[in-house]
Amino acid sequence: MLKLKSYFQRPEKGYDPVPLAYAAGYTDFEFKKIDTELVNKIGIFSDGFTNKTLLDLGGGPGQYSIEFAKQGAAVTWHDISKNYLDIASQKSKTEDVDIKFSLGYLESAKGKYDILFNRICWYYCFNDYKFADLIVSLVNDGGYGYIIVNNENWLFSKIKKEKLVKKIYLSLNYWFNEIFDIKFIHIHPSHKKLKKVFSKFNFSYLNVERENLNTVISFKK
């Protein structure tokens, strides 16, 4: 079980699932393709960033944390990787923006925020329903959430490229999570499941939209 592993693999004791060489290469790639239209879209949706607290949950190399801070948000970056923390911290200094940093598993994030942003790292969570509960609990009343998840379209596009044994292994894990809500490995949820996960909340606004390989969830609490 993923959660059991987390008791032994502690980031505060040196565990880092992201090798430095990979982190450096991914940083270069991500900073070259920052989606400024996405930043503007979230700004419009959340009625601006100025004087609002924002949690970049799973912030990686910090490319979006920096963009949100430039737009006036008081940003907290949270991620499990110390390598990414070091990179994001240095990038924020270079860009002369003030960002708070928090190291730990996605589930260890704490606080209350006006805006929560989570991009392309949902599948690292231990449990889809419990992670949604956490996300909602981290948002202030009247606050906003904007979440981008690689869905089953993304997963199946990758499975097609694998050898037969791995195809079966990944497919079994996918269906086990879909049917029994138990994750033995990091696996992507379906769009249908994500709609079900978020439909249980009493939001003032909710939109769960499929965008090809991704599902985009936006809500106002």
What does the model show?
The protein has 221 residues and is an alpha/beta fold. It has a single domain, classed as 3-Layer(aba) Sandwich (Rossmann fold), CATH 3.40.50. The protein contains 9 helices and 7 strands, in the order αααβαβαββαβαααββ. A 7-stranded mixed sheet has the order 3-2-1-4-5-7-6, with helices on both faces. The longest helix has 17 residues, at 164-180.
Individual helix count: 9
CATH architecture: 3-Layer(aba) Sandwich
User: How many individual β-strands?
Assistant: 7
CATH superfamily: Vaccinia Virus protein VP39
pLDDT < 50 runs, ≥5 residues: none
- Tell me the name of the CATH class: Alpha Beta
Structural class by SSE content: alpha/beta
Name the shape in a single word: globular
Query: Helix proportion of residues, in percent?
Result: 40-55%
| CA gyration radius, whole angstroms | 17 Å
Mean pLDDT, all residues: 97
**Percentage beta strand:** 15-25%
Straight-line N-to-C gap = 31 Å
SSE topology string: HHHEHEHEEHEHHHEE
User: How would you characterize the largest beta sheet?
Assistant: 7 strands, mixed
Could you say how many structural domains there are in total? 1
Classify the fold: give the CATH topology.
Rossmann fold
Which strand order do you get reading across the main beta sheet? 3-2-1-4-5-7-6
GO molecular function: methyltransferase activity
Protein name: Methyltransferase domain-containing protein
Keywords: Methyltransferase, Transferase
Domain Methyltransferase: 55-141
